[in-house]
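Help! Submission page says 'invalid entity' but I think these are all valid:
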Amino acid sequence: MKTAPALNHLEIKLTLPDWVRPFLKKNSPCSTDEEKMRLAVALARENVLRGTGGPVGAAVFRDPGPELLAVGVNGVERLGNSVAHAEMVAIMLAEQGQGSYTLRIPAGPKTALFTTCEPCAMCLGAVLWSGLTRLVCGAPREAALALGFEEGPVFPESYRYLEDRGVEIVRGVLAGEARAVLRLYQERSEGIYNG
Amino acid sequence: MKTAPALNHLEIKLTLPDWVRPFLKKNSPCSTDEEKMRLAVALARENVLRGTGGPVGAAVFRDPGPELLAVGVNGVERLGNSVAHAEMVAIMLAEQGQGSYTLRIPAGPKTALFTTCEPCAMCLGAVLWSGLTRLVCGAPREAALALGFEEGPVFPESYRYLEDRGVEIVRGVLAGEARAVLRLYQERSEGIYNG
């Protein structure tokens, strides 16, 4: 079998841009859903302004409470990796920080993912696997679709499926601000990368 | 904001086990769907026997043709990462090898993903993002569910959604052999990790 040299490279590395660091050191605690979503929106906006990726930001917090476990921003183009959605990066970093493939600890503290846009099919599936117990969304799927983003096979029953398995879903938190970042990206970009 | 030390670690690393290497150097070309699926099944079986992960293997090939672009095996427990399904790893490594977040090149060669079990919701979404043009599956979703695996919100219309967007889907290739690896895992494991 003829193999390209790259075939023998058995490692994938995903990184967040360095500009993210100050967001992680923020002293003001986020305690309400709006405050937590504001952090995710700020990450999304910065990602667009710095040109490091698409217009979505995400953050995983203990739920309830102010403890931030991880953040993510879309890095698909920067990393050459179609999996590197904000939500996926935040989930993987949160698990890494906890040292486990699941964030769900029996009788332990719960966790919530804040994302500035309703997740695509991949990210919604990942939420289920991650053991997150709450998913909080900003802009609706329709806002992303309207800008030419593909969102994948997500149906009303997809959300019900997660709810039936113990994932609480909250939608429309800071939707206007989250949608504004989608628009900002469209204005600044030559095209939607996956349009 | 109080942050755990791990919060400042901005990198995720995903690796395949070293035992995968001989599979990548195989001299005998795989040209039929059955031959390509046999490689994926062999990877899945080896992953179970070596205790390096769950009972699913995957491989990305040029389509048609014998060129192998990447392989993947489930590494969820080993890596402490719920995203590290065989399909996700294979997709990310294939993109890395091609140096692009999409495997779809206008007027260029096409690519197919071979997976020993019908993908979960996350992996099915990832197929769409990756630009793969064909998805070839071994064991049916029901075989995984019957063993206690969770598969997430995948519906008949999920497959139609992908087909409508140019992804050809083939099911049931070496289903018996792929299912046998699922059973082998169950026999050898104390429990299904996400049951």
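Support: the input was valid. A stray whitespace character was the problem, and the output above is from the cleaned input. Chain A touches chain B through 74 residues (CB under 8 Å).
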